[in-house]
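[stage:ingest] chain + small molecule (nicotinamide-adenine-dinucleotide)
[stage:ingest] validated
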Amino acid sequence: MTTTQTVSHTMTIGGASAPSDAVFGVINPATGEVFDEAPDCTRAQLDAAMQAAAAAGEDWRRDETVRRALLGSCSDAINTHAEELARVLTLEQGKPLDRALGEIGGAARWFRYTAKLEIPVEVVLDNDRVRVEVRRRPHGVVAAITPWNYPVSLAVWKIAPALLAGNTMVLKPSPFTPLATLRLGEILQEVLPAGVLNVVSGGDELGAWMTAHPAVRKISFTGSVATGKLVAAAAAPDLKRVTLELGGNDPAIVLDDVDVPRMAKRLFWGAFENCGQVCSAIKRVYVPESLYEPMLAELGEIAQGVKVGDGLETDSQMGPLNNRPQFERVQELVDDAKRSGAKVVTGGHRVGECGYFYAPTIVGDLKDGTRLVDEEQFGPVLPVLPYADLEDAIERANATHFGLSGSVWSSDSDRAEAVAHRLECGTAWVNQHLNVLPHAPFGGAKWSGIGVENGPWGLLGFTETQTINIAKG
Ligand code: NAD
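[stage:predict] done
[stage:export] tokens:
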């Protein structure tokens, strides 16, 4: 539903603030009510953003030193506006304010780190006859599309390396969480040359317009597997390059020597951080039969102690789910598990009368083949599954189309690491989960994605190789 615009949030197009004649409502998930509005980008405005990005690229790609310096300034600008950005993020996304501040601080750190990455020039042959170098060229205009769980950090994972490599960008946040990203665009407008970073907002169809747009040479997409497949199909006719960061159904395998009380807390927050709305959160945990009951009880006790509440209340440890469809999906998966005979140890119900709060939920006695085990729940529900034989647990952990991350837990980290090597996923952690770093590549195997973000590997994803082959004499 769109109405006439009355709010101050603007898109950033060609270095200027761009309102729109139409707006759409943004819901605070803590109340379930519309609390603000965002511009609904028209096709003509998208064309203008694409043209601005293409035109800005001519100069932007010329001077790497300038780009590095400006990425540092982006980091400073984010830090300067951290409190304001975090508050908007909590209001539209739901996460507790301290976590929102953590996300904004992380975005500033990511800029700072990325600004120092080297764009390599490799000499592969240098003899009497020829000198052969491999250089890196930018793609041109990048279309960046982000989801609603970490709108700011996931945008910065794209902006910083894409811009360092000499690309320019048109960025679109999720319609559920457009505001912090729009504000980020306004803030960075003060730092970056006009047209280098354009931020537009709108519904899913805007994403589809972007992926089909002839100005775009690279699509960097983070979101669900279903949409990722549409993006890949949309990229194909024009052979646009794609990086896809998609969903996960990430297993944790607990070995038989763990100290249950010590590890349960880490396991819990590996699953329930951001109300379970993390692509690489633990989505199912395999526990040896000997430790199954104690682990179930311990996780249940931790879950019961969590303070669920409005992210703006200082004692909230877990906010609401971000949106109604996701809230209903989580309820549906838990109801389905109950119907198939699963035991809900704790939770399994909404919290309060308004908003999208759901109690942290621990579920046992599930059979493989239950939807809660096989699908990505992306919410505050953790299925706990016993195993008799470690080989069987590894096989079940890998028996999925997903392959984003996984973790192995043991008092003997060598033993755990040997199992981690066998997980079919992009990141495997030992005795921890969700420790995502700017230095290390992050991406998925199988349906969890194509390509990676972060570190030098993520940077190279925003480049094409160019071989320079020079005859001597
Ligand atoms: P989604 O796929 O519904 O939407 C993601 C973005 O794509 C939104 O901006 C949306 O407007 C846009 N979009 C929708 N249809 C489009 C189309 N046809 N063409 C182009 N763009 C389109 O995902 P979501 O519900 O916002 O996010 C949750 C999903 O994202 C989960 O599956 C989660 O695991 C995944 N995710 C992955 C990572 C990762 O790094 N691998 C990180 C965070 C979230």
